[in-house]
Amino acid sequence: MMSDAPAMRPAPRTPALAGRVKAALVLFVLFALMPPLASALNDPFYVLIGTRILAYAIAAMALDLILGFGALVSFGHAAYLGFGAYAVAILSSYGIDDLFLQIAAGIVMSAGFALITGAISLRTQGVYFIMITLAFGQMAFFFFISLSAYGGDDGYSLSQRSGVLGTDLLGSDYGLYYTTLALLIAVFVLCNRIVNSRFGRVFTGIRENRTRMEAVGYAPFRFQLTAFVISACLTSVAGVLLANQAQFVSPAFMSWHRSGELIVMVVLGGVGTLTGGIVGAVVALLLEEWLGMLTHHWPLLFGTFLVLMVLFSPRGITGLIERLGIGRGRR
Amino acid sequence: MMNLFVLQLLNGVQLGVLLFLIAAGLTLVFGIMDVINLAHGVLYMVGAYLIATFAALTGSFWWGLLLMLPAAVVVGLLIEVVIIRRLYARSHLDQVLATFGLVMIASELVEIVWGTSPLSVPMPEMLSGSVPLMGPLRYPVYRIAVILAGLAVAAGLYVVVNHTRIGMLLRAGATNRMMVSALGVDINKLFAIVFTLGAVLACLAGALVAPILSVDTGMGESVLILAFVVVVIGGIGSIKGAFLGALLVAVVDTLGGVFGPFLLRSLLDPAAAGQMGRVLAPMLVYILMAVILFARPAGLFGRRA
Amino acid sequence: MTSLSVQNLSKNFGALKVTDDVSLEVASGEIHAVIGPNGAGKTTLIAQLSGQLRSDAGRVLVGGEDISQLSMPDRVGRGLARSFQITCVLPGFTALENVAVAVQARSGSSFRFFGRVAEEEALNAAALRALEEAGLGDRAHVRASSLSHGEHRRLELAIALATEPKVLLLDEPLAGVGGEDAEAFIDRLKRFKGRFTMVLIEHDMEAVFALADRVSVLVYGRIIATGTPEAIRSDPEVRAAYLGEEEEEVA
Predict the structure, then answer these.
(1) In angstroms, what separates the C-alpha of A6 from chain C's closest C-alpha?
(2) Of A49, B8, B270, C163, which is least surrounded by CB within 10 A?
(3) Could you tell me if residue A27 is inside a domain?
(4) Which residues on chain A are in Cβ contact (under 8 Å) with C91?
(5) Does C215 map to a domain?
(6) Which of A194, A228, A256, A231 has the alpha carbon at shortest distance from A115?
(7) Where exactly are the transmembrane stretches of this chain (chain B) (predicted)?
(8) In the structure, what pLDDT confidence band is assigned to residue A320 with cuts at 50, 70 and 90?
(9) In Å, how far is B21's CA from the nearest CA of chain A?
């Protein structure tokens, strides 16, 4: 069936990618404007909450990289938040308080753990993958609980925030906020490049149809493992920032509930969109703050919200997002 | 040393039997319905709270246990009909989200109904005390009763799965879901029965453990992950795998905590061995899981994915 | 060009012998058709040849090299490509992207994380060429999920072409395609004759007899006859086992 009618020949699609970048730009501008607004309202507390949201946005975006673009539902990603956070605690206890060295240490620990556990988890698929990542996440959790040198279960307080190249940039809440924002932007740019690269196309292709990709010559394992490690490393950056925000680290950073919350964020904002992770972090954490003000039984409301959302959108949250035309699409 | 070993081995078996009760339902639900249920640990907790309530009302552990069972059926059926049933055709991601929400709801509801302070369930009179085991060693009667009760349930489950029509359908369902629907079986009914059976077993585990543990809202959490490890090790959908996996995980967990440092002491100096042992012990079951999965990605008795 | 040699290949599912000691010699540049009634094990044979399914016994040689122990991706790297009977494409990708990702597999590393792949002209140009060869050039920018069945069959072909195979396994490329479309498809395949070696599994006897140099007949996992189309057509054993049923099957 040949047709020469021009209507049958859609032009090369204008990359919706531009749309994603645009949405991200709007978000970043809004984030940049938030602190002056908060100080005008005389409520600098918002800056600390904002830092927390931005840090989680980094983690959610990193998770979306494998969950949205690779359909790898990792239920152990909180472990990497923990590695980042403990990198701050461990290095600062040895007097190394430079942010970038701490980030590097968090990345090294995360890469090692993700490489080993990912290699085992990725030999399986579906339900197995979810449960195994969950179990390995729990393993990391128990490791830090029994690490008595850093407070074990009780956690470890940081006497001061990290330095940045010898300056005390993070000493002020504003400095920490804008550093976090800068890292969020950097991680977004990186993720965006990755999903649009050769590697990203293969990785997304494996999500679309694994057998097809094998039949044109790709071994999925290597690509999935690489993406898994990248995602883990980026998540640990969020952990470094969260430790600075709270000036405290504890195994609670790595509980399986935290992993679940990261997944919730990605899904709330829209899987496979990158900006969705950012939006999801904002929505989920603000909802948490707001419900928390209403009642200390807020998880009851949040849980009900989750269940209703899954049950009453015909094909689940994933379907709802597809119908809104923002999810699943890779650009 | 030998005494300690026997004691810890028995404790391990007792934990293993409980883990089996929890993991059995979980593995069937995974294997037959392909549903991941994060709320399974909640059922274990609910079982404990139910027996605590009924035992307090009636003043008897036995009445509590007897009343807990129909209540567990109701709870299981309710969750299946209201939530789980709608998740069969959904993606794993949807299942994760909905059952994660269910965990939040259930934990808060339990806190609202029963408060935050732990409850306790009195040991039944006839099972209190201990019996001599070997030499000066004595072992609590109740724990022996738990082991026996668990083994009895496991045996019952074995008979049901291997020698009844329902069991035949379950086994068929775990290997090939299409086949079961092709047999003209009412899938909805079968799934409801399987889920409720699993729920009752988890509740039973919670009820049995109530007299020897404090009943609190956190109790479902740790056990859920251990049950996942059991299911993964045993192979999804395999009751036999769940049984052996549960015993393996529980014995390694219990013995490792005690004997790990002993073994390390022959390699390291005592202080380092103690430190290392404390760090490694809680990770042992996960390392075990990693090793088994590395050799057999589908678990000990799983069909290959 | 490259020959394909299949030696004593077997596969059992439980007690069922799905592939039973199958041997085949396909010469360089030959189009070799494999026909057989439903359930004869044709698709299983393709799965074994392509490496999707592990064989219980036997060897597969491409150009004399034993590839029996290689995975499907590695076999593709040795020049052994396949198409699928049931459409197997990347539904969220455009037709062009479906093909470009196949081109990418054989041209340069895929572990590049920064450059925008959509702007790699070499990939797109090669992909467009393959699409045009398969008769799908005008639909390059349509999402695969929006293509019709006939277009999916052509996309399957384009993807296989893009891997630049030495040996191409075609699993019922005409499944569900009829009339003029089928004729155009057969013409297209004819044009590839001599460019690579082909194993063609096909139900459409017209296509088989129009294309094939030689035909093998597979019944219950065994090859009962191999020969020129004319010889196969007049082989009484084949007629009894297979061709006699054809009339009913078409209905």
Answers:
(1) 10
(2) B270
(3) yes
(4) 208-209
(5) yes
(6) A228
(7) 12-31, 38-57, 63-84, 96-121, 141-161, 190-213, 219-236, 243-264, 276-295
(8) low
(9) 18
d(CA A77, CA A63): 7
Answer whether residue B3 is part of any domain.
no
Query: What's the domain range around B101?
Result: 12-131+138-295
Asked if C58 and C182 sit in the same domain, the reply is yes
Nearest to A306 by CA among C60, B100, C251, B247: B100
Asked if the model's pLDDT at residue A8 lies above 80, the reply is no
What is the reported pLDDT for C235?
85
8 Å CB contact of A148 and B36: no
- The one-letter amino acid code at A101 reads L
Q: CATH number of the domain that C193 lies in?
A: 3.40.50.300
Cα dihedral value C141, C142, C148, C154, nearest 10: 30
In a domain, A7, yes or no: no
Q: What is the ipTM of this complex?
A: 0.91
Is C93:A208 a contact under the CB 8 Å cutoff?
yes
B39 touches chain A (CB under 8 A): no
Averaged pLDDT of chain B: 88
pLDDT in tens, A104-144: 999 999 999 999 999 999 998 888 899 999 999 999 999 99
User: Would residue B46 count as lying in a domain?
Assistant: yes
Using the beta-carbon criterion (under 8 Å), do B100 and A306 form an inter-chain contact?
Answer: yes
Q: Does any domain span residue C84?
A: no
- Is C107 found in the same domain as C47? no
Output the domain CATH number for residue B276: 1.10.3470
Q: Which residues, 6+ apart, have CB-to-CB distance to B56 below 8 Å?
A: B64
Chain centre to alpha carbon of residue C25: 16
Chain B residues touching A267 at Cβ < 8 A: 93, 97
Range of the domain at A19: 15-324
C221: left (phi over 0), alpha (psi -120 to 50) or beta: left
The minimal CB distance from A208 to the residues C91, C110, C112 is found for C91
Q: Looking at the partner chain, which of A264, A297, A310 has a beta carbon nearest the beta carbon of B108? A: A297
CB contact under 8 A, C111 and A193: no
What is the domain count for chain A? 1
In a domain, B117, yes or no: yes
C62 and C112 assigned to the same domain: no
In a domain, A93, yes or no: yes
SS3 of residue A291 by DSSP = helix
Pair C14, C43 in one domain: yes
Q: Which helix (H) or strand (E) holds C26?
A: strand C16-26
In which domain, by residue range, is C56 found? 1-79+165-251
Residue A10, in any domain of the structure = no
In which band, very low, low, confident or very high, does the pLDDT at C244 lie, cut at 50, 70 and 90?
A: low
The answer on C113 and C40 residing in a single domain is no
User: Given its phi and psi angles, is residue A188 left (phi above 0), alpha (psi -120 to 50 degrees) or beta?
Assistant: alpha
When scoring C71, C75, C101 by the number of chain A Cβ atoms within 10 A, the one with the most, hence best to mutate, is C101
**Residue C177 confidence class, pLDDT cut points 50, 70, 90:** confident
A216 CB neighbours in chain C (<8 A) are 76, 81, 101-102, 105, 159, 162-163
Nearest to C114 among A197, A214, A217 (CB): A197
How far, in Å, CA of B32 to CA of B27, rounded?
A: 8
Distance from CA of C36 to the nearest CA of A (A): 24
Identify the closest residue of chain A to C79 by CA–CA distance: A217
B108 with A303: Cβ contact below 8 A: yes
Query: Nearest chain B Cα to A141, which residue?
Result: B283
Minimal C-alpha gap between C241 and chain A (Å): 33
Q: How far apart are CA A26 and CA A19, in angstroms?
A: 11
Q: Are residues C135 and C53 part of one domain? A: no
Rg of chain B taking only CA atoms, in angstroms: 20
Specify whether the CB–CB gap between A133 and A76 falls below 8 A. yes
C11 found inside a domain:
yes
Mean pLDDT of chain C: 90
- Note the pLDDT of residue B277: 79
Q: What is the pTM of this model?
A: 0.92
B97, A267: Cβ pair inside 8 Å? yes
